[in-house]
Amino acid sequence: MTTAAAVADFRTYPLICAPSGVQSLADRINLEWADGRISPFHHLWLRDNCPCDRCVYSVTREQVFEIVDTPDDLKPTATHIDNDGCLLIDWPDGHHSRFDPGWLRAHAYDDVSRAERLAGIPQSHLWRSDLQIPVFEYTVLMNDNSALLQWLLAVRDIGLTQVRGVPTDPGSLKLIAQRISFIRESNFGVLFNVQSKADADSNAYTAFNLPLHTDLPTRELQPGLQFLHCLVNDAEGGESIFVDGFAIADALRSEDPKAFQALCEIPVEFRNKDRHSDYRCLAPIIALDALGRVAEIRMANFLRGAFDTSVEQMPRLYRAYRRFIAMSRESRFRVMHRLNPGELWCFDNRRTLHARNAFDPATGARHFQGCYIDRDELLSRILVLQR
Ligand SMILES: [Zn+2]
């Protein structure tokens, strides 16, 4: 059963369990559920989350009420549960709140409910050299939203996917990228062309081998998703290599915790410059999220500035940096694959490091196109597709 969307949200919340009673305390109520769970809700929290159309503008579904406009010892004059299982609250100023039980259960902050929510947060599936790369078909993704969702979940959780059957006309990458969202432009264009050029403004545009890296570590926000679409691949060499940066960070955390700590703490500058631009970003190589999980890897040896840290920290930084790169070269972590025309990579650029073997332009043409989309767009698209 799904309760009515009597809440200021674009989702509905399943009625997992009905409230069975409510008990009033000095600064909160205890809501009792039919399964025995007891969820405390503070009076201020309840008033703050009133979903009525005076507190939340029904068009935008954003709050217009501000909790600071109530006394801090606010207390209901009455509370009870109605026949639909909704929690009704009367406030001293005559305001009434009505809370949907599905919504309350989904937002309860007793220890058990919070632990359940934490366990429900999507987990990254860490991978090593034995990864079976998830493969998707272009025409299916273009026409079927449930297949699209499966692809996006793989990008989110595994961070490396391949799409086959993509038209090889220049620019066709745009169509599939835009199935997710708008493309993030950079100084290299909306789409960038990976070809060797005499006047290259990055080592990417040469035939050199490119060591494992993330793209644009020179920006405060590295692009979340990277696409690389193969149009022509007649040259010898140029295989793509990937490692899961989260898996390496995870291994480093257990095998060499001091090195892990150093890479989380000591910032490193990355730079990219040409005649018209000069991008710089100073940040640690490993970033953690609010829960202490590895959330981002920032790495491109060819874009790195001179280390600038204290005399005491310098040996610590070199030891950790060398250790991380040495690990990324270990075969246990590496996946290598040669991309054929009509195939593309879509990977999490803030997680999955990519490399390219050197190729020989004398043996044939090689032309890839690429683009970026931010991680926020991916996550938003997933949530909307899941509604
Ligand atoms: Zn209200």
Quick overview of this protein structure:
Residues 27-104 form the Gamma-butyrobetaine hydroxylase-like N-terminal domain. With 387 residues, the protein is of the alpha+beta class.
Mind explaining what this structure looks like?
The chain has two domains: 99 residues, NE0471 N-terminal domain-like (2-Layer Sandwich), CATH 3.30.2020; 252 residues, Clavaminate synthase-like (Double-stranded beta-helix). Helix 7 packs across helix 8 and helix 8 packs across helix 9. The longest helix has 15 residues. The protein has 387 residues and is α+β, with helices and mostly antiparallel strands. The chain contains ten helices and 24 strands. The radius of gyration is 26 Å and the shape is elongated. The N terminus is likely disordered. Strand 4 and strand 5 form a beta hairpin. Bound molecules: zinc ion. Zinc ion binds next to loops. The site of zinc ion has 6 residues, from loops. One of its GO terms (molecular function) is iron ion binding.
Keywords:
binds zinc ion, alpha+beta, 24 strands, 2 domains, 387 residues, 24% helix, single chain, NE0471 N-terminal domain-like, 10 helices, six-stranded mixed sheet, four-stranded antiparallel sheet, Double-stranded beta-helix
